[in-house]
Design a protein that fits this description.
By secondary structure, the chain is α+β, with helices and mostly antiparallel strands. It starts with 6 loop residues before the first helix and ends with a helix. It has a 7-stranded mixed beta sheet, with helices on both faces.
Length: 215
């Protein structure tokens, strides 16, 4: 029998330091994950590599917020030459679509010539943001989206950016591995703070974005 997992259950799980995943897109089952080490991106010590700062300044992308959730999650689920399979199945799409409609799930999107070329999505609770997945159809689009996310989180008073896992791709931004017990000590006070996701209004002002990230 398939266990019913509702958006409310997902929210309670995140508040307890747990999140759902699937083995692969074709598998309808979900399982709960609580890593021994959590990947955390320090908001006040976030590193923007020089080449990426140059890319942000060029303003090649139009940044949109919460504009096309379905397009973003599809981009994150697509197979690519570097990723032949994905963990985003239909139940994940449905659950996070519901959470988006409820105002808990958010996107940062990079558009170019009227097309969605990269972005990310994640979930927020209190002053914690839990990054779920990101994608690029254009060089550095997901990285630019991440810089814009950090600017938005800092402007809104967030204190925790949870990347869930450690990986080499995120290490360039200052990712740190946090043991489970220490992570819970970071999560609990973050949940008690009332942060705002929509305070930043300079998404397409590259210099303002970089000042906020570095400030």
């Amino acid at each position: 029998m398939t266990t019913t997992i509702t958006p409310q259950i997902v929210l309670r799980a995140y508040a307890a330091g747990i999140f759902p995943m699937a083995e692969e897109a074709g598998d309808s089952a979900l399982y709960w994950v609580e890593p021994d080490e959590r990947g955390v991106l320090p908001l006040h010590d976030f590193h923007v590599p020089r080449s990426l700062a140059k890319k942000v300044r060029k303003g090649d992308f139009e940044i949109r917020i919460d504009h096309d959730f379905e397009g973003v999650i599809q981009g994150c689920a697509d197979n690519t030459p570097k990723r032949s399979s994905t963990w985003i199945n239909d139940r994940i799409r449905t659950l996070y679509g519901q959470l988006f409609d409820m105002g808990y799930c958010h996107t940062v999107e990079c558009w170019q010539d009227g097309k969605l070329v990269g972005g990310l999505y994640g979930l927020r609770l209190g002053a914690a943001f839990f990054g779920e997945s990101m994608f690029s159809r254009c060089t550095d689009a997901s990285k630019v989206a991440l810089v814009h996310l950090v600017a938005r989180l800092k402007a809104g008073g967030f204190v925790l950016l949870d990347a869930q896992f450690t990986n080499d791709h995120l290490s360039q931004f200052g990712l740190v591995a946090v043991p489970r017990d220490e992570y819970h000590l970071m999560l609990e006070p973050a949940l008690a703070i009332d942060a705002e996701y929509d305070l930043f209004d300079a998404d397409n002002d590259p210099e303002a974005v970089l000042r906020m990230v570095r400030g």
